[in-house]
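WARN  no MSA supplied for this record, continuing single-sequence
INFO  ligand: 2-acetamido-2-deoxy-beta-D-glucopyranose
INFO  echoing inputs
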Amino acid sequence: MDIRQFSVMFMLLLFCFQAHVLESQNQVCNSDDIGALRDFQKGLNSGIESWATADCCSWVGIICKSSLPLGLVSSTRVVGLELGSRNLTGSLSESFVGLNQLRYLNLSHNFLSGDLPRYLFILQNLEVLDLSDNHFSGLFPDSINLPSIQFLDLSQNYLYGTINPSMCNQSTNIQVLNLSMNYFSGNISGFGKCASLNFLMLDSNMINGSLPNDIFWLQNLRQLHIQNNRISGLLSDGLGNLSKLVQVDLSLNRFSGNLPDVFTSLSNLESFSAHSNNFIGRLPFSLSNSSTIETLHLRNNSLSGPIDLNFTLMVRLSSLILSSNKFHGPIPPSITFCRNLKTLNLARNPLGGQVPESFKNLESLSVLSLSNTSLHNISGALGVLQQCRNLRTLILTLNFHGEEIPTYPALQFRSLEALMIPYCGLTGVIPQWLSNCSKLQLLDLSWNYLGGSIPDGFSALESLFYIDLSNNSLSGDIPKSLTKLRSLSGDFNRLRNPSLDIPLFKGTNQYNKLRSFPPTLDLSYNKLSGKIWPDFGKLRNLHVLGLQHNQLSGLIPEEMSSMKSLEVLDLSHNNLSGTIPPSFTSLSFLSRFSVAFNHLYGRIPSGGQFLTFNCSSFEGNNGGGLFGCHRTAKEIPADFPGDVPSFNAEPRKHTREIVDFPFGIGVVAGFLLAVFICYMSGLLLPKNKKRSRRTLGFILL
Ligand SMILES: *[C@@H]1O[C@H](CO)[C@@H](O)[C@H](O)[C@H]1NC(C)=O
Ligand SMILES: *[C@@H]1O[C@H](CO)[C@@H](O)[C@H](O)[C@H]1NC(C)=O
Ligand SMILES: *[C@@H]1O[C@H](CO)[C@@H](O)[C@H](O)[C@H]1NC(C)=O
Ligand SMILES: *[C@@H]1O[C@H](CO)[C@@H](O)[C@H](O)[C@H]1NC(C)=O
Ligand SMILES: *[C@@H]1O[C@H](CO)[C@@H](O)[C@H](O)[C@H]1NC(C)=O
Ligand SMILES: *[C@@H]1O[C@H](CO)[C@@H](O)[C@H](O)[C@H]1NC(C)=O
Ligand SMILES: *[C@@H]1O[C@H](CO)[C@@H](O)[C@H](O)[C@H]1NC(C)=O
Ligand SMILES: *[C@@H]1O[C@H](CO)[C@@H](O)[C@H](O)[C@H]1NC(C)=O
Ligand SMILES: *[C@@H]1O[C@H](CO)[C@@H](O)[C@H](O)[C@H]1NC(C)=O
Ligand SMILES: *[C@@H]1O[C@H](CO)[C@@H](O)[C@H](O)[C@H]1NC(C)=O
Ligand SMILES: *[C@@H]1O[C@H](CO)[C@@H](O)[C@H](O)[C@H]1NC(C)=O
Ligand SMILES: *[C@@H]1O[C@H](CO)[C@@H](O)[C@H](O)[C@H]1NC(C)=O
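INFO  complex generated
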């Protein structure tokens, strides 16, 4: 039974209760019950509407049941309280001792606080108790005697202390136990008695110690969620005892040692996640026997050896995430037996070699990241991957060092929405075939050595809203066609397109979706010359425009003040002359602005966002100088709306030669993929090339 079936079960249960309500409409409720309910209401800060009449069975949220003992008067008792999501505040009084026929109590999604009343935990008939998403605090009840309980949900509260191991002495029928998202600590030994448990959710607490062996006695367990705790030690072979397991999530803990080679026994397993632990050793070969597994997520461990599973039987595998480990190559050609594979992330492993020819058969493949895997042969890679007709996201950051980007016109990625090949030191020119990728929305070719001019073809790409060509050697004019990009001129609503729902990291501790990246045109750190087209003013949907560190000349067009969405505008380090158009004060979202190191003169516009910019945004202008700047106060914080990486007003140009990426990374359990924007302190680059410190790179972790 999965969660859905469970929900159906409980809906049926509810339905039964509702039926009883009808049946008991003319019954007057028991006087003990009415007293207890009035006490309960007294503990709340606000009353509940309709809880005034004499017959409590007609009150909102009350479920009654009458029994007709043979030859006797009927008795009607309150058997359920359904008061979820009613914004109740206050605390629970101990009135529940009177409601001793209660079978169903749902107070979830309220603002109830205080300790959990002890008397709730001795209700002999209670089958369902849902107190999730409230503000209850205090310790886990020290004695629980709920012999009928099947479903207990205390998740999303402020409970702490150890989880009382003896709770299953009396509560032997419990099938669902959800204690997620609290502050429980200590170890979790003692669950062995809860033999009926189907779902055990202990994730997002502060549980530590090792995983006790009695967990592996729970032969009925279908879902085990203990992710995001501090559990350490080895993962025992006992896992193989739990043959009914469907979902296992151990991620974000401190497990060490090898993954147990027990997957042959787990014949129902669909999802196994153990990312962000300290697992070492090779992939357990028994995974090859898993014909049920759909998701295997082992990112961010220290697993090593080759990826040498026999993929022949793993026909249902749809998501394989092995990134940030120490696997060595080659990329196994037999992965193509996994015909349902949609997501493949092998990033940050020293694989080496090439993309296997057989990858052209991965018909379902939608997301592929091979970032930082020491790949070579970009021509071969693109030639093979263009045949994956459902490929939507391709991330190849940090590979192919110094190779030439292929330009043969036949390349075509029909489904591709995001293409990222930055930090590859690629030579050559920006290829014309990009304009055949008609679905392209995001393009990142930054930090390469691409020369020549920017081709005209981009304006044909109707969905393109994110272009990063920064840190290359592009020369010539900015093509006027860039001012015609439909998605940037505002009449394209990318949010309507659900296809880019790719979870990702952005900045530190933050996740986002690819499609929620700000519309961006970053051409900074190139050798572009000529003038800035007045038609840039048409890009009403553009949020970030980076043109700094080029050789642009001429005036700053007044028309740019109609770029109403602009948050970042950096024109620094060019040869621009004239004045700053006063109408720029109407750019009301502008939070970063720099025209430093040009030949501008005249008064700095005053008003609007211009009151917030630091003087460093205007310095170094030798065309007569800019005046009217007074603000030398502290720097504007880096996290401004949209949270795009900051544009450094003071560029730090210097030579780098180390491979070292100090970056902070957010921790979000359950996400299968991550695209990460990092501030890199440098990467392997020839010594003679000047680079800025500011960088923007996508790395799928
Ligand atoms: C409790 O009520 C909420 C809605 O208020 C509902 O979402 C939840 O599923 C209910 N819990 C149970 C166990 O039925
Ligand atoms: C609870 O509060 C929210 C917002 O404060 C409101 O939208 C919602 O209607 C309230 N629910 C009830 C049942 O009063
Ligand atoms: C457990 O609780 C969490 C948080 O309240 C919720 O997201 C999850 O669906 C619950 N799981 C079950 C099986 O009730
Ligand atoms: C539960 O059982 C264990 C072992 O059988 C025993 O040590 C413990 O005292 C019992 N707890 C309760 C509350 O009965
Ligand atoms: C678990 O955490 C508690 C405090 O939270 C600490 O006293 C205990 O030593 C820890 N146990 C282990 C095995 O780390
Ligand atoms: C759990 O903690 C208790 C005491 O806090 C200790 O006696 C027991 O050995 C621990 N169990 C495990 C598996 O660490
Ligand atoms: C497997 O489950 C059985 C029955 O619950 C138990 O006796 C045995 O110790 C378990 N094996 C492991 C390795 O935990
Ligand atoms: C990787 O795992 C470690 C724990 O092993 C964790 O501290 C770190 O935050 C994780 N990194 C990422 C990027 O998830
Ligand atoms: C895979 O399953 C077969 C038959 O069920 C078994 O003989 C073999 O040992 C298993 N392989 C591994 C690696 O567990
Ligand atoms: C992989 O498994 C299939 C089916 O179990 C078998 O026929 C094939 O020989 C295996 N391949 C290798 C390389 O072991
Ligand atoms: C690239 O991979 C190497 C080794 O696999 C690692 O040391 C380095 O930190 C990685 N760089 C990035 C940016 O992921
Ligand atoms: C690159 O890959 C293509 C296609 O897989 C292959 O034909 C070519 O020989 C490869 N080139 C090199 C230098 O390995």
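Residues 85-87 surround 2-acetamido-2-deoxy-beta-D-glucopyranose (ligand 2) (CB under 6 Å).
INFO  checksum written, moving to next record
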